[in-house]
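sorry for the late reply, my laptop died twice this morning and i had to redo everyting from scratch. anyway the thing you sent over, i finally got around to it. pasting the sequence first so we're on the same page, its 203 residues, then the predicted structure underneath. double check i copied it right bc i was rushing
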Amino acid sequence: MEKFTRLTGIAAPLMRPNIDTDVIIPIDDCVSVPRAEQGRCAFRAWRYLPDGSDNPDFMLNRVPFRDAVILLAGINFGCGSSREPAVWALRGLGFRAIIAPSFGDIFYNNCFQNGVLPIMLPEETVRAIAAEVEAAPETPLTVDLENRIISNGRGLRIAFSLDDARRSALLAGLDEVGLTLQRDAGIAAWQVRDRVRRPWIYL
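ok and here's the structure:
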C-alpha cells in the first residue's frame, strides 16, 4: 500500500449529505469492471449524461476540480452497503484524502486499508474549508498527516485528530495484512513451538 505522509493538491467541495456507496459506484460496476478501472465508474450517475458524455453541471467535471486529490464531503459520506470498491473507485479517480463531518463506519475502515485518509471535522469546519476552496479553487490544499494539519497558502490552518495506530499504519503504508506480516518472525517461532506441542495438527 502506498504511504501517506503529506498531500498537496486541488480540493473539490461535494457537500451533499448522505452520499452512499451505491452513488459512489453502482453494484454492477463492482462486479463487471476490473479494480484498476473502477475510477471511471465513480459517481457514474452524476458524472455522465445519458449519451455517455461528461455532465458539465457535475462539480468533478469542472476545472480545476477534475484534477482534485482531496474531497470535501457532507455528513455521513460513504453510508450504505459495505462494498470496498467504493474506496477503490475514489482512489482510481485520484482521491487520497476525504474530509467530512462523518462517514459510514465500514467505508471509513475500508479507507485505511487502501491508502486513503478519511478526516472527520465538525460540519462548520468542513464548510469553512469548502468556502475557502470555492473562493480560490486553484489554491492547493495540504493535508499533513505527520503533523495532523490541513493548510493552504491563504492562511488556513486546521488541526485534526486521528487514532495513533491508524496514523502510523498510513505513514508506513501498511494495511492489516502488512501489519500482521511485521510479526512474521514471532508467528514462525510460535509455529515451531506448536509443532512440538501438537504435531497432529500439522499432519
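The chain has one domain: 6-172.
thats about all i looked at so far, will dig more tmrw
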